[in-house]
């Protein structure tokens, strides 16, 4: 292996690989390498094994990894880790009616080229050498690899929704990135801290239909789904539901909304834990003295150092401000905290800074980097959703630009609110909307021993191609919870 691999803790997410490593991997996966890890000896200690079958088993038992398993996949044919693909988003200008002796004007289809870079997802595993003297080496190895793979799938699933390589160049661009950069502001529905409604779903399906698509699935968080169940399973529907259930073996209470019917098609609801941003808060880690307890702290020893922040009130009126005197998270005095991130993890959140804001105003954060051996790629910003509550919820991730930089809070992204993605996943072949390319399938590679332990990595080399971003909708700032008259929060 190249010197990129330095220690078992080196990679726990998207990273880099050399051309030689990719060539070796492809050769290994096609050359019949030994796959029984209990039989590796001598030179076979450096080995590669496909985990495709294991992944199938895990994804059907670990059902939370939903979007990844439902995406269509194909081999990525990349040159220098970049795959070029074309999008046809038009058939040419209108016309065609002519006289009996006249030719129509020629026109060309609207074609444009896009690129999808191969990204490298790597998670390390290790097993102590002393386990060779017990009867648990195979389960221990399998458990270590399974844990590494599930960490990778957790990262992959979240990045498929929220990845942004303008902030972290090592990760894929997710749905949020593609929707916000599709050239149309209509495809982001901003509810401003109100509950989702029937009309929002109908408008979203209509918009996808207007762009020659058919919405088929809505990915949302469990909290958003609970809100939807409460709204659409109201009192008018419940008596009939209970009567129907009563004809069966006993009466069942409750109401679950499985899909939604519109004039433009029917879509299914698919709750997904990995988009529950209303629960995201400052970085935490396991308490070394009590692993069952989470405490604040950096998520990796190679995360950047904790930044320092200051908050200041801007001019009374700021262009583009969405601060209001009433509604969800209205004007008031709010505290902020910020965590520094890189490809390895997130720092402990900064000491809080507080500032007041009036309607139509803004607050500016000044973020100062703290020197560290590991570079900062961006910052995650947290804010109180309820003024003075001391409960900090995720607001936004921004790109690192300089050792001292500013960010202005216009209240565009509301902490403690949910998000949902309405997608067209009906197409195939030339009509496909998105696809996951694979330069190499998920696999485990064991490294040569450099310590009294067996160690290696679970690797996956994908790219994410979105051919028709106008067939995707994002609904943001969704009210969650059952509270009335107060700002509802889910504090987990």
Summarize the structure.
This protein is an alpha+beta fold and 492 residues long. Helices cover 18% and strands 32% of the residues. The model is unreliable at 1-11, 28-46 and 482-492 (pLDDT under 50).
Radius of gyration: 25 Å
- Distance between the first and last residues' Cα: 41 Å
Oligomer: single chain
Largest sheet: 6 strands, mixed
Low-confidence stretches: 1-11, 28-46, 482-492
Strand content: 25-35%
On the 0 to 100 scale, the average pLDDT is 82
Treating each run of at least 4 consecutive H or I residues as one helix, how many helices? 8
Portion of residues within helices: 10-25%
| Count of strand segments | 23
Secondary-structure-based class equals alpha+beta
Apparent shape = globular
List the helices and strands and how they pair.
Blueprint: E1 12-15, H1 19-29, E2 47-50, H2 52-61, H3 66-70, E3 73-75, E4 82-88, E5 111-117, E6 120-128, H4 137-162, H5 175-180, E7 188-194, H6 198-210, E8 217-220, H7 222-232, H8 238-246, E9 259-262, E10 265-271, E11 284-287, E12 290-296, E13 308-313, E14 332-341, E15 353-357, E16 363-368, E17 378-384, E18 392-399, E19 404-409, E20 418-423, E21 434-446, E22 453-466, E23 472-478
Parallel strand pairs: 3-21, 7-23, 8-10
Antiparallel strand pairs: 1-6, 2-21, 4-5, 6-22, 8-20, 9-10, 11-12, 13-16, 14-15, 14-17, 16-19, 17-18, 20-23, 21-22
